[in-house]
Amino acid sequence: MEITGARILVPGATGAIGSALAEQLHQQGAHIAIAGRDAAALAKLSHTCAGVPSRRFDAYDLDSCAGTVAWAHDVLGGLDGVVVCVGVAGFGQADAVGDAIAEHLLTVNALAPMAFLRAALPLVPRGGLVAAVTGVVVDLAPAGMADYTASKAALALWLTCVRREQRRKGVRVLDLRLDHVESGFADRAVTGSPPSLPRGQTVPEAVNAIMDALESKG
Ligand SMILES: NC(=O)c1ccc[n+]([C@@H]2O[C@H](COP(=O)([O-])OP(=O)(O)OC[C@H]3O[C@@H](n4cnc5c(N)ncnc54)[C@H](OP(=O)(O)O)[C@@H]3O)[C@@H](O)[C@H]2O)c1
Known about the structure:
Elements: E1 7-11, H1 16-27, E2 31-36, H2 39-48, E3 54-56, H3 62-76, E4 81-84, H4 99-120, E5 129-133, H5 137-140, H6 146-166, E6 172-176, H7 203-215
Parallel strand pairs: 1-2, 1-4, 2-3, 4-5, 5-6
Helix pairs in contact: 1-7, 3-4, 4-6
Bound molecules: NADP nicotinamide-adenine-dinucleotide phosphate.
NADP nicotinamide-adenine-dinucleotide phosphate binds at residues 12, 14-18, 36-38, 41, 58-60, 85-88, 108, 133, 135, 178, 180-181, 183, 185, 188, 200.
């Protein structure tokens, strides 16, 4: 996708990766709308990006995710792409993670991104894209993070099916399957503590990888 002039919504724009991506998209001439939970972080990012439109949502309110897509389509005068950067980590053996935590992880990491992209599919034209950040846990299936991994795997497989559905329409469906990133994400886990991890990518490296995926024609 040609970034310059593209109308792109970034849900999760208050996070480390989402905010850096939003800034990069803005600097490269995209018309962005930003969405997140943290009002102060949203206002700060909007200010940094020349006052781009912003809106709050909570991943637990799936209607607010879908409503944010309709809002972005309105304020941007159309929508060429949505890149979901929402997510929360959770650690612990499956028999130590309660159902409430499992529900939290599945809602924030799978149902909310699906709600954003589901609402975007009828609005994004041929040549546009929908994308969400998953993670290499989908391939690695590590011990000690079954519920987090299951939530990302659900999202990844959903994206694979939707990619098939959208092929004829010409909308690209991207699974941004990042390796570990030094963003502090693991330390903000809803439960448990991370295992010792090898040094990960920097946030700018992760954003470059995402930009490459958005710009690629494949
Ligand atoms: N960092 C890594 O090692 C890594 C590796 C692979 C994939 N990923 C994925 O990359 C994405 C971004 O992660 P990050 O590293 O940038 O972490 P981050 O800084 O913690 O960002 C997470 C984002 O998700 C939002 N979020 C969490 N719970 C929410 C809720 N209930 N309602 C609304 N928003 C909510 C956060 O909003 P607030 O600002 O309000 O908290 C924030 O915008 C996530 O999907 C993560 O799974 C990260």
